[in-house]
């Protein structure tokens, strides 16, 4: 299957899905989403969702994190991966939001990446979810699944290269939906060690499936 045909089949599949595929992180404000996404780095959304209710109860706004100490914040996120670094990130996050952005979550990638704990992937999540920008958050799931499906070439060795190739071929209106679907597909079906191909809905367009199961038929 040529890449153009693969993308056409993928887009037809997306068209048949529910219109809104949303992040599994629970949040009630832009600030809470930003904190949750920072905490979710190399950690499951399920784990993040177990700690954020108490965290947000005690630190409901940027100003509360900005004036907190390490010992104030750490106990609430100690079960999260890399809690020491993330505690420092959250305190720094609060200070930057208060000092540079009047307590509001900024709406550009450049400004978002000035915030501690926010890289390109996190910034793209915020831009897509809060501001409905056509951005791709290439996490480990997107990186793996896009390569397995054949949506990007095997020469795409970095998240940025995967992002650029996907953005080159996906229509603007399909970007956010595709990103969220690929994340969830990689989380639950196309897992790293033993992908669940028997329960996958898109084996008909998957390069990995072609090579592993259909070669020689």
Fold and architecture overview:
This protein is mainly alpha-helical and 217 residues long. It contains 12 helices and no strands. The chain has helices at 3-15, 30-39, 45-58, 62-66, 70-77, 83-101, 109-112, 120-131, 140-149, 159-169, 175-188, 207-214. Helix 5 (70-77) packs across helix 6 (83-101), helix 9 (140-149) crosses helix 10 and helix 9 (140-149) crosses helix 11. The longest helix is centred in the middle third of the chain and has 19 residues, at 83-101.
Characteristic terms for this protein:
mainly alpha
Could you outline the blueprint of secondary structure elements for this entry?
Layout: H1 3-15, H2 30-39, H3 45-58, H4 62-66, H5 70-77, H6 83-101, H7 109-112, H8 120-131, H9 140-149, H10 159-169, H11 175-188, H12 207-214
Short description:
The protein has 217 residues and is mostly helical.
Order of helices and strands: HHHHHHHHHHHH
The biggest beta sheet reads: none
Specify the number of helices. Answer: 12
- What spatial form do the alpha-carbon principal axes imply? elongated
Q: What ranges have pLDDT less than 50 throughout 5 or more consecutive residues? A: none
Could you tell me the mean pLDDT? 93
Question: What is Rg?
Answer: 19 Å
Helical amount among residues, as a percent range? 55-70%
Strand content range: under 5%
Structural classification: mainly alpha
Record field, number of beta strands = 0
